[in-house]
Design a protein that fits this description.
Length: 220
């Protein structure tokens, strides 16, 4: 009577083992780790930023980017060097680091094993450079060049008052090369004036407003 009982126990154990093995075989694959990404909130002019984050150790990290104005993430290309897609390999501790040039506001994300990170925004502060010249009596020529060379951005030329405040003496928009020129007239000859330029930025391109350094000039 014991033999059938032993067979029953063995049969039951085999059934449990088989069911467990089948459950493991049918279990879905573990989801890939979602990569993280971090970048500076803003930068200035035409400059390099460093993008960092975490991913599965040893995994290939693919950079995606888009100029902010387009909101259309695509694989980043190393145009300046190889022309290849921009990728890196996550270190043994799961960290990665990518350097990238920025010349306007940008969106960035990374993809690892088909899984995309969140998207981050890097805004770019315009850098206005103001130069002054006076070749005719009572006149000053103010020229401003912006980096990046963004067209159709609001510009003001401001003059410092004796009480420390500033008055707008010329206004307009940058041209296609990102430049603006104004001729200031009816000034007192031999008198020294101080000027600065202001750029209004562009929310559609994630460009931030900025002032130039102040410069003084003695009118001819």
């Amino acid at each position: 009577m014991r033999l059938p009982l032993r067979r029953a126990v063995l049969s039951a154990a085999l059934a449990v083992t088989t069911a467990a093995a089948l459950a493991v075989a049918l279990a879905p694959a573990q989801a890939a780790q979602t990569p993280t990404i971090s970048a500076p909130a803003s930068t200035s002019g035409y400059s390099t930023i460093v993008i960092t984050g975490t991913a599965t150790p040893g995994a290939t990290v693919e950079l995606y980017e888009s100029a902010y104005v387009f909101h259309d993430l695509k694989p980043a290309v190393d145009w300046a060097n190889t022309g290849d897609l921009v990728t890196t390999t996550a270190a043994a501790n799961g960290t990665y680091r990518i350097s990238r040039w920025v010349d306007t506001g940008f969106l960035f994300a990374v993809q690892v094993d088909g899984v995309m990170s969140k998207t981050v925004t890097v805004r770019d502060k315009l850098v206005p450079v103001l130069t002054l010249s006076s070749t005719k009596a009572g006149k000053v020529t103010a020229k401003m060049v912006a980096t990046p060379a963004q067209p159709w951005v609001a510009v003001q030329i401001q003059r410092k008052n004796s009480n420390g405040t500033w008055s707008v003496v010329a206004r307009g928009y940058t041209s296609a090369p990102g430049a603006f020129t104004a001729t200031l007239t009816k000034l007192k000859s031999k008198k020294t004036y101080t000027y600065r330029a202001w750029l209004g930025g562009d929310t559609e391109s994630a460009l931030l407003a900025a002032y130039s350094s102040a410069h003084s000039i003695k009118v001819k």
